[in-house]
Structures are given as C-alpha cells and as structure tokens.
C-alpha cells in the first residue's frame, strides 16, 4: 500500500473531496484507510458502564485507498 499511518493525505473523490487530514489507521486486506476529520459517521449507543448516558457518538469511517492522494510523508526519525 502506498500510504502509511501518519501521512498527510488529500481526498480526491467522494463526498469529502478536497478535505485534508492525517491517516489514523489502514486496513491492508480491504485496501481502506481512516483519515482524521473525513467521512464522519454517527452511531447510536445504548447506555453502558463506560458511557452511562448513551447517545449519539460521531467518529471517522474508512474510505478506499484509491480515493486519497499523499501530500507529504511522515518525517523519518
């Protein structure tokens, strides 16, 4: 895969076209990436011990790797 965790990428296709963010995680088998601030999804959760009130939780969903373009690589240390 051409993108690594921590790379800065730009979305080139889909509903979030033009947005930029850093790669949080990758799924090599499914060829998908999770980008910070892109493809936000809302999930309804029941009350539990961790979340006493429950409610709607918003998080990033994955997008296909072909829909992103690398802007800059993470600095090698």
UniProtKB/TrEMBL annotation:
<keyword id="KW-0699">rRNA-binding</keyword>
<dbReference type="InterPro" id="IPR003256">
    <property type="entry name" value="Ribosomal_uL24"/>
</dbReference>
<dbReference type="GO" id="GO:0006412">
    <property type="term" value="P:translation"/>
</dbReference>
<comment type="function">
    <text>One of two assembly initiator proteins, it binds directly to the 5'-end of the 23S rRNA, where it nucleates assembly of the 50S subunit.</text>
</comment>
<dbReference type="InterPro" id="IPR005825">
    <property type="entry name" value="Ribosomal_uL24_CS"/>
</dbReference>
<feature type="domain" description="KOW">
    <location>
        <begin position="2"/>
        <end position="29"/>
    </location>
</feature>
<dbReference type="GO" id="GO:0003735">
    <property type="term" value="F:structural constituent of ribosome"/>
</dbReference>
<dbReference type="GO" id="GO:1990904">
    <property type="term" value="C:ribonucleoprotein complex"/>
</dbReference>
<dbReference type="InterPro" id="IPR008991">
    <property type="entry name" value="Translation_prot_SH3-like_sf"/>
</dbReference>
<comment type="similarity">
    <text>Belongs to the universal ribosomal protein uL24 family.</text>
</comment>
<dbReference type="Pfam" id="PF17136">
    <property type="entry name" value="ribosomal_L24"/>
</dbReference>
<dbReference type="GO" id="GO:0005840">
    <property type="term" value="C:ribosome"/>
</dbReference>
<protein>
    <recommendedName>
        <fullName>Large ribosomal subunit protein uL24</fullName>
    </recommendedName>
</protein>
<keyword id="KW-0694">RNA-binding</keyword>
<dbReference type="GO" id="GO:0019843">
    <property type="term" value="F:rRNA binding"/>
</dbReference>
<comment type="function">
    <text>One of the proteins that surrounds the polypeptide exit tunnel on the outside of the subunit.</text>
</comment>
<keyword id="KW-0689">Ribosomal protein</keyword>
<comment type="subunit">
    <text>Part of the 50S ribosomal subunit.</text>
</comment>
<dbReference type="InterPro" id="IPR014722">
    <property type="entry name" value="Rib_uL2_dom2"/>
</dbReference>
<dbReference type="InterPro" id="IPR005824">
    <property type="entry name" value="KOW"/>
</dbReference>
<dbReference type="Pfam" id="PF00467">
    <property type="entry name" value="KOW"/>
</dbReference>
<dbReference type="InterPro" id="IPR057264">
    <property type="entry name" value="Ribosomal_uL24_C"/>
</dbReference>
<dbReference type="InterPro" id="IPR041988">
    <property type="entry name" value="Ribosomal_uL24_KOW"/>
</dbReference>
<keyword id="KW-0687">Ribonucleoprotein</keyword>
